[in-house]
């Protein structure tokens, strides 16, 4: 019995560590907003092209690295624990709120598609403004979502408001 409990605790610890790392726990680097100008200009040009062509691969890569472990590859989340992003009435109702919650998480309980989710569960991942644009645009246009796009100015405005 003791071996089973120890094994269970070990598995739980590994799962929690993996979740923390996948949700961006290793990305709290100082000066993350301090990009050199050439990289920022290149990223902006790439994203403009992505939006025009509907190719959201930069946002998909950010999602897979930081969001997928909780919200799942399908965007369906885990009912009652991690809200869905796919066809989410809550997400699709307000792009500005989607940006803010990408930046800050959900601090209050929310109801998504009729299911309540607790607040303060989402791990905050420090993303640069352009990365936030990329991942929000990917989410707004994946899994059957057709919610348009956000801009760099939208994200800068949300950052200023927080």
Give the key terms.
162 residues; mainly alpha; Cytochrome Bc1 Complex, Chain D, domain 2; two-stranded antiparallel sheet; 56% helix
Strand composition percent: under 5%
Q: Let me know the largest β-sheet.
A: 2 strands, antiparallel
Query: Percent range for helical residues?
Result: 55-70%
Order of helices and strands: HHHHHHEEHH
Structural class of the secondary structure composition?
mainly alpha
Q: What is the CA-atom radius of gyration, in angstroms?
A: 17 Å
Topology, number of strands: 2
* Shape label: globular
According to CATH, the fold-level topology of the domain at 54-161 is Cytochrome Bc1 Complex, Chain D, domain 2
Q: In terms of per-residue confidence, which ranges show pLDDT below 50 for 5 or more consecutive residues? A: 1-49
Which CATH architecture of the domain at 54-161 would you pick?
A: Orthogonal Bundle
Provide a concise account of the structure shown.
The protein is mainly α. It has a two-stranded antiparallel sheet with strand order 1-2.
Would you kindly provide a written description of the structure presented here, covering whatever features stand out?
With 162 residues, the chain is mainly alpha-helical. The chain is 56% helix and 4% strand. It contains 8 helices and 2 strands. The chain has a two-stranded antiparallel sheet. Strand 1 (110-112) and strand 2 (115-117) form a beta hairpin. The termini are far apart. The model is unreliable at 1-49 (pLDDT under 50).
Write the SSE topology.
Blueprint: H1 2-25, H2 37-53, H3 57-66, H4 68-71, H5 89-92, H6 95-104, E1 110-112, E2 115-117, H7 129-140, H8 152-161
